[in-house]
């Protein structure tokens, strides 16, 4: 009853109408929100479902389930409009289309439907739009499709999407576009052996290195997040990471004065993961010119006892333990 009542009220109010659910997950959230407003201290009145109300609810649910494919087809049509590639055109409709598609493909079943209607190439093509807003929207949708979705990854990869995303990360003038592309790249790559190999073959680690060097906080965090995935996933890339100077870069970022706290936290974790899984990386971390133990202890003095930095503090202590243990081991070997 409350669903019918509140949706009916929403239809009479422009602001509420914009908040009406667009998919089944949105419907669940809508019901939860409305239920939270009810007086749960009193028993809910039992109301028999009339034929009118039953038809109303059946219509709502059928609309969500039956019309989604038709709606996605219409949204894709908007994304093939010539305005997508005309820098002087108004693309507000296309921006909204990407936003709506993003909501739909959060449901893996709708992501599969989008593939079946050959929608993936359309989304990937939008990455070539001169409109930054559309590039960001397309990257977001690609990431949403591929996240925890092997089917999405496998069918995106043949579309040259990885190289397009790498180019955006490397060459774009808008940091937000770079961040969205890195999000999509991460979702496309993780937990897919095919994508991991392609990433390596396309010199993906070089792109990550340059993204880290920008010192843009969101880029650093997302780059190091993906780096940590590769460090924890397999040993086969660790020689490559060391030869490229990733330890040097992480240490440099770690103690840069103009870097943010979250980036420091992620870089500390990367150094710890490398050090504990690869002896050569541990040896790199102990190079005298880094003075890493001293630097870490100084940082520890600054953040110790502050709940805001609890994760970073834990990572620093763990890394110091590894470094001290190896020092003691080397002393014993000398004796």
UniProtKB/TrEMBL annotation:
Residues 24-114 form the Nucleotide exchange factor Fes1 domain. Keywords: Repeat. GO terms for cellular component: endoplasmic reticulum. SUPFAM superfamilies: ARM repeat. InterPro entries: ARM-like, ARM-type_fold, Armadillo, Hsp70_NEF-Inhibitors, Nucleotide_exch_fac_Fes1. GO terms for molecular function: adenyl-nucleotide exchange factor activity. It comes from the Eukaryota. Pfam families: Fes1. This is Hsp70-binding protein 1. The gene is Hspbp1.
